[in-house]
Description:
The protein is α+β, with helices and mostly antiparallel strands. The chain has helices at about 15-35, 40-50, 70-80, 85-105, 110-120, 130, 235-265, 275-300, 305-335, 345-355, 365-375; strands at about 125, 140-145, 145-155, 165-175, 175-185, 190-195, 210-220, 225-230. Strands 1, 2, 3, 4, 5, 6, 7 and 8 form an 8-stranded mixed β-sheet that branches.
Amino acid sequence: MLLAPENTTAPPATDWLARADKIGAEIAQRAAEHDAEDSFVVEAYALLKAEGFFKALVPAEFGRGGATVTEIGQVIRRLGASCGSTALAFAMHSHLVAVAAWRWRHQGAPTEGLLKRLATEDLILVSSGGSDWLASGGTAVKVEGGFAITARKAFSSGSPAGDLLMTSAVYDDPEAGPTVLHFGVSLKAPGVAIRDTWRVLGMRGTGSNDVELTQVFVPEAAISGRRPAGSWHMLFHIISMIAFPLIYSAYAGVADGARARTLELVRKRTPDILTASLVGEMENSHVALDLAMARMIDLAETGTPGPGATSLAITLRTLVGRSAIETVEQAMEAAGGQAFYRQAGLERAFRDVQGARYHPLQEKPQTVLTGRVALGWDIDG
């Protein structure tokens, strides 16, 4: 008697883009309202959580999403075309998960506990990286069993809905000197307060408030990493390679949305040479954006972290940011006077995309580091 073969069919892969498109159609309707009110995109976050996006990048070995950086980069870009704030805030959570997953898989780093919590508790992470970078900020004072942390962390995107702040502070180690301690702290812990400070030009719905920590106790066992303050460390080479593609996917999405809206408006006109030329310039910038973005994502998936990969990643960050800004500016020029009205959505895209200028490393520091790498000079010089 013949036995039926075992069913070895793998479960169907999650169509993350289809889920993103579904959410994008809903959040687009509220994007202008959140922008006008300086209010957090709370409904969008609820939709993202319901569709499993906050644990999408948790490795499949932990029983969760198993999505790739490529997939979530595309998701963020799709969301950005509908609501830049939703895309950028979600990117800040996503890059933390992606870095933790990469370190677990490639370095055997002790990030398993965090990944398991993400899988089972569906946590939302908040990054303070935009206000810390290599030097970090705030102080860590040694106390019994751990450290007392006092700091104020700006640009903490997603803070109104966040569960854990992934941050750092500087401990004046009597032997090693100024040492940056990395740790996560509950946003509901004693001494943690979210300050409603986010009144800005663009990306107004990200909830990127200041988070203030006053004598917050962090146990010694909760310190996930230590490094010299102010110097490049392997952790930051990993962050540069993986985080920037996800963050800048949000700005690429904003540019996509502005381009699509402009084409929709301009197609209704009687054809003329000047309009065709203006749209052609926009298309040039958008293709440059696509090319740099694709290389950036590929680097995140296949690169080896180190000074060379970091130099390339931050160069691409500059090129993507510049091309995204140019695409939106040229979209507004091609659209003409209609772009000046809020209802067209282009002036919001113009304001949102300006945020691409301000993430580290900004263009001038980037060119210095890239030049040092090209010359073979010490990047900490």
